[in-house]
# Entry
Amino acid sequence: MALRLVMMGTGNFALPTLRGLYGTQHEIVGLFTQPDRTGRGHHHHRNPLKEAGLEHHTPLFQPQDVNTPESLDELRRLNADLCVVAAYGQILSADLLRVPKLGAVNVHASLLPKYRGAAPVQHAILKGETETGLTIFQIEPKLDAGPILGIETTKIGPKETSGELEHRLAELAAPLMLQIVDQLEAGTVDHISQDPQQVTRAPRLRKSSGAVDWTKPADAIGRHVRAMQPWPSAFTFLEQAGKKPLRLILLDVEPGGLSENVEPGTVISADQDRLIVQTGKGSIEILQFLPEGKRAILAAEFMHGHAVQVGDRLIPSPASGA
# Structure
């Protein structure tokens, strides 16, 4: 017997799961997604889930707060068996979770109980994990703490960014979620409690999280650059005598063994093709970056047009001086 499903999600991470559900015998009777947002210049941010829902003529709901009495009434009218949640961006109340007959299940981009929180992919890369994955779990009022229904693991590539890894995980999420939904419909799914001793946190990133700390080891800085892509981006400032500090977004770096007894953040090699910077342990070669207000550029190309010298500094902020 097909289930009546309500999908709750917003970003690209949720899109493969929604598309996969449209291809099953189950019926999507409603789609809850975040309200439309307007950015600079009054441009509307694209909401891929909303677009997919409109294409399939699915009833669409965009409440500021999904837990209000009005939203709960709308959910009750849909008479859903199950809510499927992926990157929705709102916490679901206990009252809401009692509305669908089978409650709500969520797809989370980590191997729970590790990396509970809003930025699991980024924190997994920051911590140097070589493996991560997806967890489908039954939602309970406590954050990411419900029983596990299914897990899928995958290796993290040595140069993989957060954006690239999230894209892969999104594609892996769809078949796993379809399997779990079918098992819930059949009553055959296993509920596995999370081990509270294994819990780690993955709190939301801020713009300031992108600042590069040059006192850290080179391999940690390399992970930081990958983890901050595409947002908030790893950034630093090139400080040169007599010039205004230049903000650089680092796109590609390579940790190396070259090291000198100088302050971390100091340029230790600046020939025509290579830009190498001292870190707290080892060095980083900057391969590609984005200068403020300009296009992405290879370091070798930048070096031909700018007089970067040994002894110049890279600092976290213009006021830091370190």
